[in-house]
Task: structure prediction
Amino acid sequence: MRRTPKSAPEIDERVYDRLSNALMEGKLRAGTKLAEHKLADALGVSRERVRKALHRLAADRRIDIIPNRGARVPSPSAEEIRAVYQAHRTLEAGVLLQLGTSLSEAMLASLEEHLRKERDAARANDRALSVRLSGEFHILLVDALDNEELSRFIRDLLSRSSIMVSLYEHAGHSACGVDEHAAIVDALRKGDPMSAVALSRDHFTHVQERLDFPETVSAPVNFEEIFQN
Amino acid sequence: MRRTPKSAPEIDERVYDRLSNALMEGKLRAGTKLAEHKLADALGVSRERVRKALHRLAADRRIDIIPNRGARVPSPSAEEIRAVYQAHRTLEAGVLLQLGTSLSEAMLASLEEHLRKERDAARANDRALSVRLSGEFHILLVDALDNEELSRFIRDLLSRSSIMVSLYEHAGHSACGVDEHAAIVDALRKGDPMSAVALSRDHFTHVQERLDFPETVSAPVNFEEIFQN
DNA sequence: ATAAATAAAAATGTGCACATTTGGCACCGT
DNA sequence: ACGGTGCCAAATGTGCACATTTTTATTTAT
Result:
C-alpha cells in the first residue's frame, strides 16, 4: 500500500465525483465525447470503473449514452432547457406554498444569513461564487421542508441546469437577482406564501429570459489537463 | 436463433422490466433478498445482466444495495413513507397551481374520461384496477403540463409508493377516493386552482391516514414461481 | 470527382475466471 | 451454557480476454 489503500467503493465514488465536478464546473463542453479508455487513462483507473461511473451519470440524466456509441456531454436544446427551469419553477411554487405554513424563525434567519453572503459575492463581483450561492439559495428553500425526496429533485434539476449555464457563458445566471431572492424571503416572513409564489415565478421568468441561444459545439478535449489535480 | 434473436439492449430492458413489474405488483415482499445468481437462474439470463438491472433499480431507489452484501427489497420506515407522500403532495400543489392557468378543454375531457373509468372500476370492485387507475390519475394531471422532468418525478414517487402500498395490504390505497379526484377536476374546470390545491392536500392527508403501521417481514421466496410467465 | 463498397482500426459490450468479502457453523475454552 | 475464534461455503466484486458494433480510411467503379 503506497499511500491511501482506498477500498474499492471509495475509488468508485471518487471517479464519479471527479466526472461529476467536471460537469458541474463546465469543464466538459457540451457535445464532448467521453471515451471510456481515454478517461480511464486520464483518471488512472481501469476502464470498468469509468464505465460504472458513466452509467451512473447517465442514470442521473447528466450525460447521454447511446448503445454501442458511447457517452457524450449532452447539448440540450433550448426546449429542454426551458423544461428544466419550468420544472424548477413549478416545484418551487409547491415548496413555497408548503413553507408558508411551517417556516421556523431559525430557518428564516439562515435564509437571511445566506442572502447576506449572496450580496457580498455580488459586491465583490465574484461570478463563480455568485452562481454557486444562487443555486444554494433554492436548495436552502427546499431543505427547509426537511423532505429528502423533494431535496433530491431540486438538486437533480440544479445539477442539470449547471451544464446548461456553461453552454451559455455570458448568460448571467450568476446575476440571478439577489434582490429577487430577498423579496421571496420577505414575503415568507410576512406570512404571505402566495406573494412568495408569484415572486418566485417572476424570478424564474427573468432567469429564463436571460438565457440565449445555443451554438452547437464539439471540440477535441485534453482530459489529462482537466483531471490533472 | 431459436425464437427471438433479441439484441442485447432489449434483453437488458426485459430483465429490468420484469424485476420492475414484480416490485410494482408487490410480488416481492419487503425485505426479500435479491441474490444475483438465483435471479439469474430464475430469469434465464447471465448474472451480469441481473447485476446491471439491480444497479439500475438501486439508482432509482427502488431497491437497496449494500456493498458486498447484495440487494434487498426495501422495508421503508413509516417516516420514509410519509416523506414520499408529502413530496407528492407538495409537487402536486405546484402542478395544480400551474395548471390553473393553462388547462385546455381537451385535457379536462380526458381527465373526466379517466374519472369515469375509475368509477367503473370502483363499482366493479376491481381492487387491482382501482389502484392502478388511481395512480394514473395523478400521472394524467402532471402530464397535462407536458413537462418531462415533472412527469418523471411523479412516476418516480408513484413507483416507490407502490412498494409501500403492498407493505400495508389492507390499506385501501385503492379506495383513494374517486370523489376526491373528481372534486379536484371540478375545481380546475371552474378555474379555481387554489381550491384544487386545497382539495389535493386534503386528498393526500386522507390517503396517508389510511396507511397503517409496518410489520417487519422477511420470508423465503420462490423466484421461479414469480417469474414463470 | 463523387459515391459506393470494403477493409482496417478503434471503441463499446459481454462472459468468465478469479479475488475479496461476508455469514454461518463448528469447535474450544472458560 | 455462553462467548469468542477460526474455518468453510456462498455471495458479491473485478479485471481481462474476446465478441460485436461503429467509425474511419482506402479502394474501386461509374
Q: What stands out?
A: Residues 8, 46-49, 67-70 of chain B lie near DNA strand C (CB under 10 Å from a C1'). The beta strands of chain B are 33-34, 64-66, 70-72. The mean pLDDT of chain B is 87.
